[in-house]
Amino acid sequence: MGEISWPTEAELNELRNVVAEMAKRSVKDVRVVVSPYRICPLGAHIDHQGGAVSAMAINMGILLAFVPSGSPEVVLRSAQFKGEVRFRQNILDRAIEVVIVDDPQQPKTSKVANENIDKNGSTEKKEECCWGRYAKGALYALQSRGNLLSQGIMGVISGSTGLDSSGLSSSAAVGIAYLLALESANNISVSPTENIEYDRLIENEYLGLNNGILDQSAILLSKKGCLTFMNCKTKEHKLIDPPASSQNNINGAQKPYKILLACSGLKLALTSDSGYNRRVSECREAARVLLTVSGKPEVDAVLSNVEHEVYEAHKGKLEPLLARRAEHYFSENMRVMKGLDSWASGKFDEFGKLITASGRSSIQNYECGCKPLIELYEVLLRAPGVYGARFSGAGFRGCCIALVDADHASEAASFVKREYSKLEPELVGKITQEAAVLVCESGDGARVISAM
């Protein structure tokens, strides 16, 4: 199978033309942020505890075409949602208050959307009303850390078809896209590690989601063909490439693996569900118990602050639910470290077995997932050429990922479509055929493509 290019020139030019018309500017003035989605082969659910994780960006994601607005106003349109979001950013007197962000105008369809929320509890309609909140969050993050922004942006944001709320960190990709656009418009130089912190502020402080820094790190630090490793406690990171012997040609452009994204048809925003934050609290409670019994009650209660020997000595003191959460953390941390060696040696079969074990622990110890996702996971494990599979993202909705032998990728995709549709025909009916099972490759991290 040939290399899949993203974004294509056609995609870029289409967005540039829309923004140029919208802003009454030349196409040559339009810049585009490329902010990829990410997968996490190993390191599930442990970044918020300071654990070790692995990840890579993929060749699909978010495109944000924009021009500096020439004023403090932000004007945004979306290819996925209706309406237009407008708000003005204020230059702050930080001696008085930390940040002010004016409320955006509601999208033109907001009245109908709100009625549907009241009547049907529709998450998708609620997201349609609030899709501009990540732009406000990006402004909040930058201004709350002392950045003075005189320029807003006018832009159009678009995501790869069918992959919103898919568990590929589309929310982090959106937040990073807005950060890079605002920084570019205001000529602010920001390092990737600083933007990891800024996106954490969007998610943790502005939106109230208690996640770690895995998503941002993968999106900002990844390099095509490499596995990104990060210690979420120390912030140490490195890129690991398989050996040259595992490549299919002398130029190293092809790898003998592809990435399968299999969509479940389930969509739910993490900020609308308490399951994610509750499990983070349970991990912290397990850490608190272990630190207390080991004579360190004053230490911050995250599992990365618990030595493995302390866990082994005192895990019997944890109640069963907390014991499962701790077992997932310590076993997953170990799988990540083993996985680094497997990847560096080009042993994708061994790496795949670790991915599958991660999926099992997510079900049994972290207790995320649901019937359709677990069914999809099991189907992937039976597909031809699949090295290993697990849930993507938090595991409460979205898709499953698999590492697959490149020569069997198309066959595996067809198998998964066919077998999953037998199990969940109603959910499959909600997925576009193009997005049901996608064959992807690793990609580069987020960047801004300057005007032509």
UniProtKB/TrEMBL annotation:
GO terms for biological process: galactose metabolic process. Residues 134-222 form the GHMP kinase N-terminal domain. Keywords: ATP-binding, Carbohydrate metabolism, Kinase, Magnesium, Metal-binding, Nucleotide-binding, Transferase. It comes from the Eukaryota. GO terms for cellular component: cytosol. Coiled coil: none annotated. One of its GO terms (molecular function) is ATP binding. PANTHER family: GALACTURONOKINASE, MEVALONATE KINASE/GALACTOKINASE. This is Galacturonokinase. It comes from Saponaria officinalis (Common soapwort).
